[in-house]
Write a structure and sequence with these properties.
Layout (H helix, E strand, L loop, with lengths): L1 H63 L2 H25 L2 H23 L5 H8 L1 H75 L12 H51 L7 H33 L5 E5 H11 L1 H7 L2 E6 L3 E5 H18 L5 E9 L2 E7 L34 H11 L3 E4 L8 E7 L15
Parallel strand pairs: 2-4
Antiparallel strand pairs: 1-3, 4-5, 5-7, 6-7
Helix pairs in contact: 1-2, 1-5, 2-3, 3-4, 3-5, 5-6, 6-7, 8-10, 10-11
């Protein structure tokens, strides 16, 4: 998971860092260009203002001849030189340097003529006339500055467009690459995790027949080995439980038989007549002995069914004759209860364990008879859908309360709903049903709304793989 997260996150992180670097570089260039443009414009404007001031002072001096005007000119000339120096530091361009040098030379020459020649001299008039060249040089300098800024702006625009294209193609390449990496690691992690979820559900349902083999990352494989160890241990515990039930049942039958025989002798008067209160006590002993015998027989029956649930003996057979045989075995009970049958079975050929499927049908039918009132109806429907057998068995009884549905598949649980027929159950039928359904890789569910009473729906594959090595499939 860490490797997958790293492989997915690193390209995205590189793209984000690259985008941030590009944006920062473009922002720095834009800021520098804006600052240079504003400063160049301000200095050029100041340069024109200072040339105008110098020319005005020179012309006044030419007309008036006051030396104080020369002092004003000198101060303006010094500020003009400072402005030229600032422009030189800002622009640093060969053509601009040439224009600046020309401005500097012309302004110095004009100042020397004004300072050395008297008013009215032809040299002084020539110096005043040289201001036109200052204006031309300043105008050329301003034009060069604008062209240089325009070139830099165009270069910045090209760089921005190139950065946009680069980021676009990076994003276009990263999106499918990230999706591919996400899908790959989702498959690599999701498949074993789904498999682990399935096997944990099977262990929770008490199905221990399938060996657990998890492929994928080493951590999940290690977890799969631990679950396989747990499955084997649970299977051993289930087998030990069944052996214990069989042994205890057989051990209890012998002393119980002696107790029952003794109570029968007492009730028959073989050892003498009993008083009324003695006969009453003996009758209580006899009834409880019979009850205990039925419980022991239930344990033996349950252990026998558990022992029979070893693997699957797969064969191919028709479903209709199998259901017909199950109905014939219960015919007397159905007639005595005056129960109507609604049988709708497609002509299906399935591959499954015939004996186990017969027990499934027999137990579901017995359960339906128990809770169907006299004159009620039992529904048995079977059809093929998407390579699956869908088997529905429903009755017209009181149904299954919601608070009992989580326990009705437990062994020996009979619920609180009164039984409508004379056939009394042992409480292990549905536990056998769910065990054998799971052995066929099927599911069983309780359906509401279609029929009045309890409605069980079984789904299992129409074709079962024959098992050469039969593994136990016990219910918890």
């Amino acid at each position: 998971m860490l490797l997958g997260l790293t492989l997915v996150a690193v390209p995205l992180l590189i793209a984000v860092v690259n985008a941030a670097f590009q944006i920062r570089r473009l922002a720095t260039q834009s800021e520098s260009l804006v600052v240079q443009g504003v400063q160049a414009t301000r200095y050029n404007q100041l340069l024109f203002e200072q040339i105008a001031s110098l020319e005005r002072s020179a012309r006044l001096y030419q007309v008036i001849g006051n030396r104080e005007l020369l002092e004003v000119y000198r101060q303006n000339h010094e500020r003009f030189q400072d402005t030229l120096e600032a422009l030189g530091r800002l622009q640093q361009d060969p053509r601009s340097d040439a224009q600046l040098e020309a401005l500097r030379t012309e302004s110095v020459a004009i100042w020397q003529l004004l300072n050395e020649r008297p008013r009215g001299s032809p040299e002084l008039a020539q110096a005043v006339g040289n201001f036109s060249r200052l204006w031309e040089s300043a105008t050329t300098l301003a034009d060069n500055s604008r062209r240089r800024i325009d070139q830099q702006l165009e270069t910045l625009q090209h760089a921005t467009a190139a950065a946009q294209r680069t980021l676009f193609w990076q994003t276009a390449a990263l999106i499918p690459a990230t999706l591919v990496l996400t899908i790959v690691f989702t498959v690599l992690l999701g498949r074993p995790i789904r498999h682990l979820d399935r096997v944990i559900n099977e262990l929770g349902r008490g199905t221990f027949s399938r060996a657990i083999r998890v492929t994928g990352p080493s951590d999940l494989e290690a977890l799969g080995r631990q679950l396989e160890w747990l499955r084997v241990r649970l299977l051993e515990l289930a087998q030990e439980k069944n052996r214990f039930l069989r042994h205890m049942s057989h051990e209890l039958k012998t002393p119980l038989a002696n107790i029952r025989e003794g109570t029968e002798l007492l009730l028959d008067g073989s050892v003498g007549d009993l008083a009324e209160d003695q006969r009453e006590v003996t009758g209580i002993l006899r009834e409880n002995g019979l009850k205990l015998q039925r419980l022991i027989e239930n344990l033996l029956t349950f252990s026998t069914w558990q022992a029979q649930s070893v693997g699957l003996e797969v064969s191919e057979f028709k479903l209709r004759p199998l259901i017909k045989g199950v109905l014939e075995s219960q015919r007397l009970t159905l007639v005595s209860q005056r129960v109507r049958l609604d049988v709708r079975v497609q002509d299906i050929t399935i591959s499954a364990d015939r004996s186990k499927l017969k027990l499934i049908l027999d137990n579901l039918l017995s359960n339906a008879i128990k809770f169907t009132p006299q004159g009620g109806t039992i529904h048995i429907h079977a059809q093929a859908a998407l390579e699956q057998l869908v088997l529905d068995v429903a009755d017209s009884g009181p149904g299954i309360p919601l608070d009992e549905r989580s326990r009705i598949f437990e062994a020996f649980y009979q619920g609180k709903t009164p039984q409508g027929g004379h056939v009394k159950g042992t409480g292990i039928g549905l536990s056998v049903v769910i065990e054998f359904v799971h052995a066929h890789s099927g599911t069983i569910e309780i359906v509401d709304g279609q029929f009045a009473g309890a409605h069980f729906r079984i789904r299992m594959p129409l074709r079962q793989l024959s098992m050469e090595v039969k593994e136990p499939a016990h219910a918890a």
